[in-house]
Amino acid sequence: MISKFAAALLLLAIAADSEAKPCFGRCGGRPPPPCGLPPFLEDLPSDAQVKITEIWKDYKEGDKCYEEQGLTREVMESLPKDVRKSIHKRPPLPFLRGLPKNILAKFDAIFKDKSIPFSQKPEKIDALAQELLTGDNLRKFQEFKEKKEKEDKEYKEKEAKLSPAAKEAYEKLEALGKQKWAIIEDLDEDVKDELFDLWKSRPHGPPRHH
Length: 210
Known about the structure:
This protein is an all-alpha fold. The chain has helices at 4-16, 46-56, 66-78, 81-86, 101-112, 121-132, 135-160, 164-186, 189-200. It folds into three domains: 34-89, no CATH class; 94-161, no CATH class; 164-201. The protein has nine helices and no strands. InterPro entries: SXP/RAL-2_related.
């Protein structure tokens, strides 16, 4: 099992390496984004900004947001494809928000560099963060890292308590999950778009075997 910190960086690396349109709800098995206004709101046409702001105006932190995400997805899907693809989709990690483009580019370079084994990326991101981040961004990075490490520890404790049968099934599912991410990561962007367009047309994401 990869750590929560590493897993978060994996999702970030895939997002940074992909120009697939932003997704709300479940598309292609990806988890939905956090509740709230999307980070790319200012990159949208003004009429779309108004619509999405109106959708989220009554949302309160901590509430479920399935309806708001669904309505946001409808607005996004109503935009021309070239507009959706032009949106600069920054990673949703708090310690990267507000950074200058030249600093973001250094993190992006690690995320996108396929010559760096994934197992080494968290260490490189950590080193880069310690070198370049300051103030609030560095504090948020430390908080993010500590939170993920705590979650990772708790997860491992639960994993250790699995029954032998559950442990065997878990390991098989983990292996399948890694294969899935590897396949998606290596696809051409046009193929990703085809699959995401197919998956988002299904009410519950990608097809599942029963």
